[in-house]
């Protein structure tokens, strides 16, 4: 049996569903092949950052995700280090989950479990053109000049099917079959902890009465790791990265002993309550690594999420980075499939996302060493960057960024605080509140999958040039808006200047003021960005 679909995903979890949803926004159908009959059942609590919520906002699911989060967790908590839950706070890492975010985004950070989020993503994706096949796994993929033939197998019956697609995207996790089939290798530090996540129920509400902690790191003579508790504070999970004497190598392999009595002891030691009643509801064994794939593309095969980069969970960057991968790739695939952009646009996925992922992986490792394993005495980590730099401040450099001479990002600089980027080409377009038709909205709300040209009050020539140039690219959607001085100031342009924002909300180009050759300039920029 053969089916044809523009994009085939291996993996229908968090990253696969998100990317399918983003593709569907552009009118591109896809099928996600998911090995599990149902989605993730362990209540893994994921920390979702401002940028991710902005992407959910553009997809129309921000409110639903936030409602689900409020059902599951208390908002606005802090991130701290304690010796044990019944003990004392040794250090505060984040005083409040959303401290300072209002200046940079219309969205706020939150926690939501994957079993709570994935159905929302799936409903939205399937409602706009995607589909998911549960109970199948990818076993082979052969690509040629025109597409990819992917063989999938029913995990129960053994039935095999071949799907023909223009492109195959591996969102199939750390042990990616697609990455293996594409012959892509990882570079990095390898495994530095064989960790476990213990899911449990235990009456901890009295122990934590009067507190609101989003994440609680724990370090004592028994173990090192962190808690994330549900809203009732009587259930949640405990990650254990080290157990016992950390001067001995076996301390970094708590996964070697997962007997129930050991798991119960871990929870009691971390809680600091010797007779705590504990019920174990699940366990996951995993390896803490810090690796990035050598390339994110092999011909018509792409990888994203954990298939492309692995990092410790400290900071919650893994899932967010994977979703950002998918958002970056989706609009590029869509425009190439529609014939609006040249195939070389797809090369910019690796050029942009691999450096951003490498930076984020390093920052996650820094947080692992400094928060969870300072006893290692490691010095092979980068200085910690500001959280806003990591969430919003990574910079893109590729042929899909076309700055004017002198407007390029500083060579070698991979990230920049959003208070400093000021609309620089290659950076995320800044958030500014504005009013349209009597309604308050963010500039972020203007970026819904089309190119957008923002011009100051005296920049009509840029708008006219953009509309004229866009007509030369069959099928290109380019919206134009005249904006006030608050926006032009944030975007680093004058009232006669303009800024071109890509479908993913990143600045492609800007002109600080008027130019005599506006039409020629816009035409040049669009051809460069679209690989035309």
Characterize the structure shown.
With 532 residues, the protein is an alpha+beta fold. The protein is 28% helix and 29% strand. The protein has helices spanning 14-25, 50-58, 62-72, 114-127, 177-182, 260-271, 317-337, 347-372, 387-392, 418-421, 460-470, 485-490, 518-529, and strands spanning 2-10, 30-34, 45-48, 78-82, 89-94, 110-113, 130-134, 136-143, 148-154, 160-170, 186-201, 213-219, 223-229, 235-243, 279-293, 297-298, 301-303, 309-310, 433-436, 439-442, 451-455, 478-482, 498-501, 507-511. The two termini are 37 Å apart.
Short recap of the structure:
The chain is of the alpha+beta class. It has three domains: about 240 residues, 3-Layer(bba) Sandwich (FAD/NAD(P)-binding domain); about 100 residues, D-Amino Acid Oxidase, subunit A, domain 2 (D-Amino Acid Oxidase, Chain A, domain 2); about 100 residues, Glutaredoxin (3-Layer(aba) Sandwich), CATH 3.40.30. The protein is built from 13 helices and 24 strands.
Any descriptors?
29% strand, eight-stranded mixed β-sheet, 532 residues, D-Amino Acid Oxidase, Chain A, domain 2, Glutaredoxin, 24 strands, 13 helices, alpha+beta, FAD/NAD(P)-binding domain
What does the main sheet amount to? 8 strands, mixed
Distance between the termini: 37 Å
Number of self-contained structural domains = 3
CATH architecture of the largest domain: 3-Layer(bba) Sandwich
* Fraction in beta strands: 25-35%
Helix content: 25-40%
User: Which structural category do the helix and sheet elements fall into?
Assistant: alpha+beta
Tell me, rounded to a whole number, the average pLDDT.
93
* Shape category: globular
Number of strands: 24
Radius of gyration: 24 Å
CATH topology (level 3) name of the largest domain: FAD/NAD(P)-binding domain
Name the CATH class of the largest domain: Alpha Beta
Would you identify the CATH H-level superfamily of the largest domain? FAD/NAD(P)-binding domain
Uncertain regions spanning at least 5 consecutive residues: none
